[in-house]
Amino acid sequence: MKYSRITLAVVAVITMAGAVLADLVVPDLAAQHAFNDNWPPHAKFHDAQYMVMTVLLGAIGLALLRRGTNPRGRLLCAAAVLSTPWIGMVVALVFPGTATYDPEFHDRTLFVLGLHGQVFLAIILLVALIVASVAVFRTTPPEPRPSWPAREE
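Above: the chain sequence. Below: its structure as tokens.
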């Protein structure tokens, strides 16, 4: 069990760092991705979304390795997994050169309250997940803490 846990932790850390290093940090690789002048803004947006998602998924993987089987933990991890693409979409907007659509598609892009339709949907779903997560804390008992150190499985 310890080998499995260590292996999963290593994969989670690589998942967190891999895309960011390859797509944004390492110059020769980043020139093919985030800093590729031939990529339109919307392609860069999805690359940024992917980088944010891999960081979040790696972090969730590490959190799951530490979680027990308490219903609160399971529900919060489910909310974290479900929020990953939507957080990735919203955070991708802060990356340089990204856009939710390419300029030639402006007239065919849906906007809601001045926001790109998918960004609007992302915000609505993230608010719903936050409300559900708060409700989890109010309605689900916390995981009992052992009175002695937990034994390694």
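The radius of gyration is 19 Å.
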